[in-house]
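Predict the 3D structure for this chain.
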Amino acid sequence: MTPAGGARRHLAAALPGWVAARIVVSGALGLAHLVAAKVDDRLPGYGERVARGLLSWDGRWYLDIAERGYPALPDESLRFFPLYPLLGRALSPLTGGRDDLALLLVANLSALALGALLHRLCLLETGDEALARRAAWLVALVPPFFVMVMGYAEPLALTLSVACFLGLRIRSWGWAALAGFLAGLTRPVGVLLAVPAAVEGARGLRAATGRERARRALPVIAPFAGAATFLVWVGVRFDDALLPLDVQNRPHLRGGFADPVTTVLRAAGDLLGGDVGLGTNAVRLPWVVAAAVLVVVACRRWPASYGAYAVVTVVAALAAERLGSFERYAFGAFPLVLGLASLTEAAWAERLTLSVGATLLGGYAVLAFLLYYVP
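Done. Predicted structure below.
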């Protein structure tokens, strides 16, 4: 099969789930607008906020960064790393100068590329066409991933992480390093790709030449180099290179770093005490349990680098006083999706999982568009 033919095959596998997700989220957005129109006269300004739609929540920050730049914004904008808004700004001439449309274009095309690359990676690892197809569907319909349709950096970040794994697994260290560097520029957790890079680089290291060892080190260093590039710029421009990390740890955001076990136990205590509002840690506990199960599956059924990446990503998501957006952060480790695909081999399990996933995808999207749920 030619490279072009292979690309068409992977894109064809990703397209149905990608289309389905956009139909579901578009329906959720339409419903949210109908609800907002009925209550806007009683809640001044509510309709205007709901009207932000696909560029609400973090999407609004990315749009402001693309249009105005960090210096013109509050320092809270620095917690959003620059590659995604930079791409949106660079591509805005293709959308008539509309940065908002360019950001949505980057996000949605990245989401399609994510499904295609994940399909390719699954075939590389297992040769199982059914598993690869299922993974491509699931990565589009996992409930927290309604943000893949919005102006969020997740589609780009996950695409780069899968691309990094592809490079690692075929021993293309340069490509893995490039993807890792760009991931570090996209989201702060991009640096976690250094962990699977170290695991893969260590395989057969004793027999490697000095030059080969240096090449294997590149993907380990590259994610840190990507993040450091932004932090150095922040240090020069704002006199505090760690400001993006400090901002993220403010009490109204993730809070300070915390022991994951303590955080989970406190959430369980809140649940038993009846504190289960949408903004509480307790309401995230089902996702914590689901993530833990899928981490175990990823560790047992996939190569060591996949399990290692799943572990460090979920632990990082739990290592905060507030578990807001935990499910989105946790599924930033795509091996969780692979774990889910591994568990749903039976036809009935696949149909049930996709149906429940699509339903919850729409439900979460409605709540987010109505500003009741922070994605």
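The radius of gyration is 20 Å.
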